[in-house]
Amino acid sequence: MVDKKVHDYINKDEAIKLLQDMIKFKTVNAPGDELPLAEFIKAKLIEMGVEESYVDAFGDNRGNVVGRIKGTGEKAALFFNGHLDTVPPGDIIWEHDPYSGVLMDNKIYGRGSADMKGGLAAMLVAMKAVKDAGWKLKGDLIYTATAGEETDSIGAVKYTDEGGLDGVGAIIIGEPSSNGVNVAEKGAFWVEITTYGKTAHGAFPHKGINAVVHMNALVSELVSYKFKYEENPIVGHPTLNISTINGGVKTNVVPDKCSVTIDMRTVPGQVHSEIVKDFEDIIEKLSYEIKDFRAEVKVLNDRPAVETKAANPFVKLAVKTIKEEFGKEVEAKGVNFYTDASVFLPGRDLPCIFYGPGDADMAHQPNEFVPVDGYMECIHFYIAMIQNYLVK
């Protein structure tokens, strides 16, 4: 059980105001504009006495923020992470201003409240309580808030490429999990396939090569495509969705180009390059069957599926911590969407859990909110994990 004295250093009203203030920053991606919020968080870290705090600014009003409480070096570092950017509020009118952070019915409303400024704020409050309580840590506690997760993870890629994960032993990402433990996420593999033909007047279609007709043949093959995979006990099986199609310029013109985009959600163990090879084989097959058939594949987004096994000691520690602190039995679960873990984990033997306040179903939805009770429980969980991983 956590040393309850540390809870005396948590001010609930201040914790709520911190999240409300963070929601008020418009960090919609695109374009991102995360830098002002990064500077705000840096000021909070310095105010907390976290001396090793800095903003890494890059691009056009973009940036990461990092804070580190130094430990003795007896243990590897615990890495807290979340993203600064949000998706747009959408076209549906919200009941409350999406950037107000309004508190009503014990819920904090606003774009990013659940996804995922709630987790970022909770991590800050937990760090402050530990710092104020004077805990001596056996390993470093690192806080990172990165730019661009909603699109290209530019911040996580930059931080990782510069060696930010050196010395890290375990990762907690504050994505919304309804205060449960998620340990796996599907990969996101998006491709664009384009068929090419030859333009001609619509009155003389025999003089052209119809790229749309050729795409029809290709799509028929794609909808019956069978992935090579082993079903994952946590995230299940992969999916394929034909998402968009675009071809032709005018009704009276034979189209010489047609493109589709495909959204695939993969499971751990799948190799995305093998899927591309399969698609290229389908194209080659059609080129023998259909005269003048020609197509090419372009990768748009390549996020591998990642997983930390439920039997991993760090996952077991998180599950045990929840039982000890809140009396709840939880099982490790997974999510169908990707996070910055798809950048942090490949090629590294690092355990990672996702734990944050709010329901993942609230992400990207109008009237997004995070329950205050879940937010405060999240703070207590982070504190308990700091003690169990870095103090004991």
From TrEMBL:
Looking up SUPFAM superfamilies in the UniProt record yields: Bacterial exopeptidase dimerisation domain, Zn-dependent exopeptidases
Query: Which stretches make up the Peptidase M20 dimerisation domain?
Result: 183-288
State if Zinc is listed as a keyword.
yes
- One GO BP annotation here? lysine biosynthetic process
InterPro entries from the UniProt entry: ArgE/DapE, Bact_exopeptidase_dim_dom, Peptidase_M20, Peptidase_M20_dimer, Peptidase_M20A
Keywords attached to this entry: Amino-acid biosynthesis, Cobalt, Coiled coil, Diaminopimelate biosynthesis, Hydrolase, Lysine biosynthesis, Metal-binding, Zinc
Which Gene3D superfamilies does the UniProt entry name for this protein?
3.30.70.360, Zn peptidases
Write down the required cofactor(s).
Answer: Co(2+); Zn(2+)
From the UniProt record, list the coiled-coil ranges: 276-303
A GO molecular function assigned to this protein is: metal ion binding
Question: Record keywords: Amino-acid biosynthesis included?
Answer: yes
State the family named in the UniProt similarity comment for this chain. Answer: Belongs to the peptidase M20A family.
Name-wise, this protein is Succinyl-diaminopimelate desuccinylase
